[in-house]
């Protein structure tokens, strides 16, 4: 499984989990994040996460199903 890199803007300190899910096309809109997280296992740095507003910083690793994303 290859890790996909998701780059955030230099001016941003973090992005939220719902924004990541939208950027990588797992959900069509940010509003769908709550439903997606209720129906799917999502892990941030190895810990199960269900908060759509979870802040993701550079270096964080998010796993969803068989996909893995590195925040950079």
Descriptive account of the structure:
With 72 residues, the protein is α+β, with helices and mostly antiparallel strands. It has one domain: RNA-binding S4 domain (Structural Genomics Hypothetical 15.5 Kd Protein In mrcA-pckA Intergenic Region, Chain A, Roll). It is built from 2 helices and 7 strands, in the order ββααβββββ. The mean pLDDT is 94.
- Total E-strand runs: 7
Query: Might you state the CATH topology name?
Result: Structural Genomics Hypothetical 15.5 Kd Protein In mrcA-pckA Intergenic Region, Chain A
- As for the number of domains, it is 1
Strand/helix succession: EEHHEEEEE
CATH second-level architecture:
Roll
CATH superfamily: RNA-binding S4 domain
Compute the separation of the termini in Å.
Answer: 18 Å
Biggest sheet strand order reads: 1-7-6-3-4
Rg result? 11 Å
Dominant shape: globular
Content of β-strand: 25-35%
- Largest sheet report: 5 strands, mixed
Helix content: 10-25%
CATH class: Alpha Beta
Short account of what is shown:
The chain is of the alpha+beta class. The chain is built from 2 helices and 7 strands, in the order ββααβββββ.
């Amino acid at each position: 499984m290859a890790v996909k890199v998701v780059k955030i803007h230099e001016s941003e300190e973090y992005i939220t989990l719902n924004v990541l899910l939208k950027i990588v096309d797992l959900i069509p809109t940010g509003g769908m994040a709550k439903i997606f997280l209720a129906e799917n296992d999502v892990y941030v740095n190895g810990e199960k996460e269900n908060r759509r507003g979870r802040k993701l910083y550079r270096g964080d690793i998010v796993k969803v199903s068989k996909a893995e994303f590195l925040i950079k």
